[in-house]
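Forum > Structural Biology > Help requests

Title: Can anyone predict the 3D structure of Glutathione S-transferase?

Hi all, first post here. I have the sequence for Glutathione S-transferase but no way to get a structure on my laptop. I'd be grateful if someone could post the structure tokens.
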Amino acid sequence: MLDNTSHTIMNRWPAQFPDRIQLYSFPTPNGVKVSIMLEETGLPYEAHKVTLSDSDVKSTEFLSLNPNNKIPAIIDPDGPDGEPLGLFESGAILLYLAEKTGKFIGRNTGDKHRITQWLMFQMGGVGPMFGQLGYFHKFAGREIEDPRPRERYVNEAKRLLNVLNQQLDGQDWIAGDYSIADIAIAPWLRGLEYYGTKEVVGWDSYANVAAYLDRFLQRPAVQKGLKTPARD
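Reply #1:
Sure, ran it for you. Structure tokens for Glutathione S-transferase below:
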């Protein structure tokens, strides 16, 4: 059984409040999903900054909680049946917190499955494709002369944006009511500005998506979650 008071990760990131959910993260599109969800639900938590450097994410301490060496991860001292639970993968954490609180997961079983399909759409499509788009436009991939990889991810990003634009026609949120699907998708839309790719994907042609992101960013919990944990 996981011991939330003496877990190896706490040798590097000690808990000041071990009775709260411990969040190990960094404010990336994946990382802020969980901090936003925690703010939206009002669950008490303690945030620990885990940078993307190998010295953090590949440390023995972090790997003891997430062997995949990616943020975010959590420890909930009050997990199922009152036992501590450690989790990694942002989508899994969102589902867990939604089920724990009964919030942002829909009003019935059908809603839950419709929301989950859009969560998986982000996990399998928007996140990986936008991430690769960023790699080939902002990071080391921009030095590759062959234009085909860059074109592939530009075109795929456009396709995914069109799917979202159509889905948002006539509704404020991706699956009806505000949900974990929105908490998963919208931070990646915001990431297009960081990558400097809004122009190349034709952002202004997706009016529903642009308005959707504006609505999302107006939420107080979102604004706080976007800055948690602080970069500095």
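The two ends are 34 Å apart (CA to CA). The first helix runs from residue 29 to 41.
Shout if anything looks off.
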